[in-house]
Design a protein that fits this description.
Strand content: 15-25%
Distance between the termini: 38 Å
Shape: elongated
Number of helices: 3
Strand order of the largest sheet: 1-2-3
Order of helices and strands: EEEHHH
Radius of gyration: 14 Å
Helix content: 40-55%
Length: 74
């Protein structure tokens, strides 16, 4: 199961037992919503695992980019 919430400028929730938090963008949110709907309607565990794998890739945060934009002197 995939749950998605938007809180301020973050998308947070969980997929399976894994929590996540990423910066909000309309495109990312729409893609996550599409995968969440797909996960809810698949008919086999193999298809479900593939959707979860695709979703997991969307939750990876590049902290280097975040630090560089928040702290330009680092």
């Amino acid at each position: 199961m995939i749950t998605i919430n938007v809180i301020e400028d973050k998308i947070c929730g969980n997929y399976g037992e894994h929590p996540f938090t990423v910066d909000y963008s309309k495109e990312l949110y729409d893609e996550m919503q599409g995968l969440a709907q797909q996960a809810a309607t698949v008919t086999s565990i193999e298809n479900y695992n593939e959707v979860i794998k695709q979703f997991q890739e969307l939750t990876v945060v590049d902290y280097t980019k975040t630090i560089e934009t928040k702290c330009p002197y680092i």
